[in-house]
Write a structure and sequence with these properties.
The protein is an alpha+beta fold and 238 residues long. Helix content is 39%, strand content 24%. The chain is built from six helices and seven strands; from the N terminus they run H-H-H-E-H-E-E-E-H-E-E-H-E. It has helices spanning 2-29, 36-43, 49-67, 91-104, 161-171, 211-224, and strands at 77-85, 109-113, 135-142, 149-156, 178-188, 192-203, 231-235. Strands 6-5-1-7 form a four-stranded mixed sheet. Strands 2-4-3 form a three-stranded antiparallel sheet, with helices on one face. The longest helix has 28 residues, at 2-29. The protein is rod-shaped and about 100 Å long. Mean pLDDT is 85; it is low at 1-5.
């Protein structure tokens, strides 16, 4: 019977130490203190050196699971965002085409194009031109290479702000397509780096976005998605 009581006491003490170690670990990771040994007396007071060492070991095990290394002092952690060009997703063209179709949806127009090497982006409006459409406007579309060209002609009855917006959008069919991918890097003690997240975004209202314009988009996304960062690295080709 005495043995059972002693074992029960030992188990209770082990549970108590684990609970205290959990509190110390939470305070350590929440930034309440930066040193484990400074935290232990706040939650557990003892003159027994061995018990203190055991407590430190329990906390270090938990720290090791979190940071990948057992450290007495909390590692210095920074969040760095690395933004790069994304040449594969095509998200910006999808956004552009959606804007174009929405703009043309309620317009009474007919739209023709010349260069059959490219798809007609407004093919639903490619109908037979009748006498009702007395006016026409031609839009020359040019890209960054000799092969990137097309000519769109809008046949219309009445020109208004919406038709003008459509013409402006058509002119940008080969330009203003900027896709980016952002890697969220966690840097520990200024040397150990790992990617913990990533996200993408597009800019289609600016032909050549500068760093300030790109930062605007990143900050808006970070705010909406609760991403806190220390700095941005622009690893861009333009």
């Amino acid at each position: 019977m005495l043995l059972c009581v002693n074992m029960s006491n030992l188990n209770n003490k082990k549970i108590m130490k684990n609970n205290i170690a959990e509190k110390v670990f939470d305070a350590f990771t929440d930034g309440f203190q930066e040193n484990i040994e400074d935290l232990i007396p706040i939650f557990y007071t003892t003159d027994n050196k061995k018990e203190t060492e055991e407590m430190v070991e329990l906390v270090l095990d938990k720290v090791g699971e979190l940071y990948g290394t057992r450290v007495y002092k909390k590692p210095h952690k920074t969040i760095q965002l690395v933004v790069e060009n994304d040449y594969n997703s095509g998200f910006s063209f999808d956004l552009y085409k959606e804007d174009l179709l929405n703009c043309a949806e309620d317009l009474d127009i007919i739209v023709k194009h010349k260069n059959n090497d490219y798809n007609h982006v407004l093919k639903d409006h490619d109908n037979v031109v009748t006498m009702d459409y007395k006016y026409k406007k031609t839009i020359e579309c040019r890209g960054y290479s000799q092969s990137e060209w097309d000519t769109y002609t809008i046949y219309y009855k009445e020109w208004n702000d919406q038709t003008q917006l459509l013409a402006d959008l058509l002119k940008n069919i080969f330009t203003h397509k900027n896709d980016y991918i952002v890697y969220v890097n966690e840097i520990i003690d200024h040397e150990h780096t790992k990617i913990v997240d990533k996200f993408c975004f597009s800019i289609i209202d600016t032909e050549f976005p500068d760093h300030d314009r790109i930062r605007e988009e990143i900050e808006e996304y970070s705010l909406d998605n609760d991403i806190k960062f220390n700095n941005i690295v622009y690893n861009l080709n333009n």
